[in-house]
Amino acid sequence: MSEVKSKTGYEIRTEILGMAQGLLTEKHRNRFQVWEQTAERDKETGRVLDTNAPAFPDETDIIALAEKMYEFVNKK
Hints:
Largest sheet: none
Shape: elongated
Number of domains: 1
Low-confidence stretches: none
Helix content: 55-70%
Strand content: under 5%
Number of strands: 0
Mean pLDDT: 92
Distance between the termini: 31 Å
Number of helices: 2
């Protein structure tokens, strides 16, 4: 019979941090695709003229989402 090992708090937080990063990266990818497909382009070169591309999530965004997710996990 296999033994079930409980995860430590560090392991759980690391997993949640990875999940938050993955969620925000996927959200950015979707927003970027929409922006790229709808952005105004130069008629001759096809170059994108709109410089307001969605910003890639930084560590602050990732940590904020991870903390929110961790709070949810800790609710009783």
